[in-house]
Amino acid sequence: MKILGIETSCDDTCAAIIEVELNKKTGERVPFDFNEDSFKLLSNVISSQIKVHKKYGGVFPSLAKREHQKNLAPVIAKAIKAGKIKSDKKKGIPEKIKQKEKELKDIFTKDDGFLKSVLSFLKKTNKPQIDALAVTIGPGLEPSLWQGINFARALSLWWDLPIIPINHIEGHILANFITDRKTLPKKLDDLFPAICLVASGGHTQLVLMEEIGNYRTLGESRDDAAGECLDKTARILGLSYPGGPAIAESAKKYSENSARVRPLRNGITVKLPRPMIFSKNYDFSFSGLKTAVLYEFRKREAKTQKSKEYIQAMAYEIQKSIIDTLTYKTIKAANLFQAKSIIMGGGVTANEELKKRFLEEATKLDPRPLFLSPAENLSTDNAAMVCIAALFNLEEATSWKNLQADANLRIK
Ligand code: KG4
Ligand code: ZN
What we know:
By secondary structure, this protein is α/β, with parallel strands linked by helices. The chain folds into two domains: 2-172 and 380-402, ATPase, nucleotide binding domain (Nucleotidyltransferase, domain 5, 2-Layer Sandwich); 189-373, ATPase, nucleotide binding domain (Nucleotidyltransferase, domain 5, 2-Layer Sandwich), CATH 3.30.420. The protein contains 14 helices and ten strands. It has helices at residues 50-53, 61-82, 97-107, 112-124, 142-159, 168-174, 176-179, 226-237, 243-257, 287-298, 302-306, 308-336, 352-362, 384-391, and strands spanning 2-7, 12-20, 39-48, 132-138, 163-167, 194-199, 204-211, 214-220, 341-345, 370-372. The strands form two sheets. A five-stranded mixed sheet has the order 3-2-1-4-5, with helices on both faces. A hairpin with a 4-residue loop joins strand 6 and strand 7 (204-211). The structure holds 5'-O-[(R)-(carboxyoxy)(hydroxy)phosphoryl]adenosine and zinc ion.
C-alpha cells in the first residue's frame, strides 16, 4: 500500500510518499509490523518559502497561500518522480470528466487561477499507483491549510482515492518513528506513557501520550509560540529569519568566544526573565520574553546595539531562557507521570543545545525515560510526518467531500 502525504499548514509546501506492508492479522491497533522495517519512505520533498517571508521576519499568510498554490503541483510531481511511482495504465483523463470538472469548480470557487493550474496538472499526470492520500487539516494558518486540502481533494476526486485527515501536532510527534526505529523498544507500548513536547513557530504544547492515538494536552503557550519568540527577537537583534537557527549560531559564538563572561567587556550584564517557569500549570508564555528583549535592547546606545558581543550575549540569553522553561516544565511532567519516554517534535526541537539539555536532565530521572527527537530534516515541517501519521490513522480515511481545515484543531 502506498500513501501520498501533503503538508501546507504554515510556510513549507511538502509532499512525501510512504509504502507499507499491511499486517494480515485484523483488529490490530498498529495495522503493520512496526518493528520489522515494513514501511519505507519513498520520497520526501520540501519547498521552503524562507526567501519570501524573510523580509517580514515571519510568515505573511497571504503570501504563503500564493506560494503554496504555485508550488503544490511541482512538489507533488517531484515526490511521485523521486518515489519512482509507476502510473496506472489508465490515462490521466478519468471517466465522467465533465462531471468531475464541474465538481472541481466547486472546490476552487473564487480561485480561478489555482483551478487552472490544478486542472493542467491533472490532465498531464497519469494516475500514479498509490492507494490513498493524506493531508494536514490543522492546526495551522487557515489560508495555508486550505491550499493543501483543496489540492488533495482535487486529486481524490480525479483519481478516486480516499483521504486520511492528519493532525499536524500528531504528525510532529510521530515523525520520531520514521528514522528512530532502531532506538525504539521492541514493543511500542514500552514507550508509554510518554511526555511529548511540540515546539515550533506556531505551537508550544506539552502532551501526555498514553498510546498512539490517545493524547491529553497538559499545557500550551498562552501567547507566542517558542519559535515565534525566536523569530521576533532575532528580528529585534537584526539577525536573519528564521530566528531559531540564527539565534543558535550567534549564541554558540558567545559561549565559545567569551566563555560566558559577565558582565560583558563594556560593563553590561544581560539578564532576561523565564516567564511562567515556576507556575503551577504546564502552560507557557513567550510574549513577555519578547517584550523584555525589546526593552533591554531599546535602553542601549546604538553602539552597543550594533556590537557583536552584545548581540551574541542576547542571543545566548534568549535561547537559554527558552531552553530553561521548556526543559523545566517537560521534566516536571515526565517525573509526575512517570513517563517511559520523552518525545520531541517541531522546528525548535532541532536545536542542539535544547537536545543536549534534555538528555542531561532526563538521565537524572528515575525511572530514566527514553529520549526521542526527530532527525533534523524531520523536526521542521515536512510531509513524511503526514505519511507516518496516516499509517496510524488508516481507519479515518474519508471522502474528499468531508474534508475541512480547522486552524485550531486539538490533539486527542
Ligand atoms: O515546525 P516548524 O518548521 O513550523 C511550524 O509548524 O511552525 O518550525 C519552525 C520554527 C521557526 O520558528 C524556527 O525559528 C524554529 O522552528 N527553528 C529553530 C531551529 N530550527 C528551526 N529553533 C531553534 N533552533 C533551531 N535549530
Ligand atoms: Zn509544524
